[in-house]
Amino acid sequence: MNLKEALNVASEELMKTGSLDAKLEAEVLLRHVLKIDRAAMFRDLDEDISMEDSSNIASLVKRRIKREPLAYITGVKEFYGLPFVVSEDVLIPRQETELLVDAAIVQAKSLGKNQISIVDVGTGSGAIAVSLALNIPTSSIIAVDISEAALAIADDNRRTHGLYSRIKLRRGNLLEPIIDKIDILVSNLPYIRSDKLTSLQEEVLREPVVALDGGYDGLELIKRLLFQAVDKMSNPGVILFEIDPDQASEAVKLCQQFFPSAITTVLKDLSNNERAVLLEIR
After folding, report:
1. Which of 50, 84, 98, 234 is deepest in the core (most CB within 10 A)?
2. Tell me: the pLDDT tens digits for 186-212?
3. What CATH code would you report for 89-281?
4. What's the whole-model pTM score?
């Protein structure tokens, strides 16, 4: 079997799941097994592949058909143009979360400080922390997570990107491990309502529940974060957190409750959904 035939077989199998991205997913799985980039794949379509590689590709396709997330199968997910190691111990980084990084970079410039203290709460894979460290050279970052397994993944990623000395990892509940004042607080905490968890896609339910369940209204952890942040934020300072689009008005009310003099703005993602809240303490 040559590479082109293997690609077609994998695509046809994945199409049975109803996936609109079956061909792209087949490419990803094939390149993962063969350890080649996309250019090499198209260059070598007529080349034969070994029985072992063919078997390995088929095995990964079966896992995907059973709704195992593609990122968990390959062990890698791209975020903000960077590769990140992921496992079932962490939430898979998503494109809409890149909005938090974009906004934090802009806010870092507006603060006008020589050194910027950033805290990433619920860091998971460390994708946000690493992206910020690389794009805000004047920052020092503390990445917090309650999961020791998640912090192990974040450690792998900070080392891979050469940021061991600039990103400190802390295990703890929200801001409890933080002692010094924070210039920028960024967080992608769980915000899905508990009663909506069972209606999520099967792939999403493979991700850690602790990274998905936001409590009865989806805002329980965000509320606790804002409460803890009152005494820990610098002035001027910035808070950024992700939300579900239907939580915007309630999230704004929480911000006004804990930071009545701050400027609160709801940010939209590329799909024009209200996806994040920006709190400017001035």
Report:
1. 84
2. 999 999 999 999 888 888 989 999 999
3. 3.40.50.150
4. 0.93
